Amino acid sequence: MSSDLEPFSESVDDMFSRLGLPKPEVMAAVSSEWDELAGPPWSGRSKPLYIKGSTLVVEASSGSMIAFLRYGEESLLRKLAERLGDGTIQTVEIRSPDRN
Fold first, then answer.
1. What is the pLDDT of residue 98?
2. Of 18, 39, 57, 96, which is least packed with CB atoms within 10 Å of its CB?
3. Domains of the chain, residue spans
4. What top-level class would CATH report for the domain 21-95?
5. pTM above 0.70, yes or no
């Protein structure tokens, strides 16, 4: 076999990185553990949509909930850093549910 070959998982990670996307397991962890990971006030009032670069995009349950969730942003970022590693998620963008 050629020494130029690399494991498929490394190729996928490299491709995601070049596209500015996190490793697939990061979004999988955020999605599957959201209610427990995020906790109040996020749990039941929001859902993670996707990660672009180091920004987690979250949909609020209603437009009026956006300002309320912003107060919990620092706490959420600390929890995400503890679970996923420092710098993985650096900012949170909160979107209204009616935004396309």
1. 80
2. 18
3. 21-95
4. alpha beta
5. yes
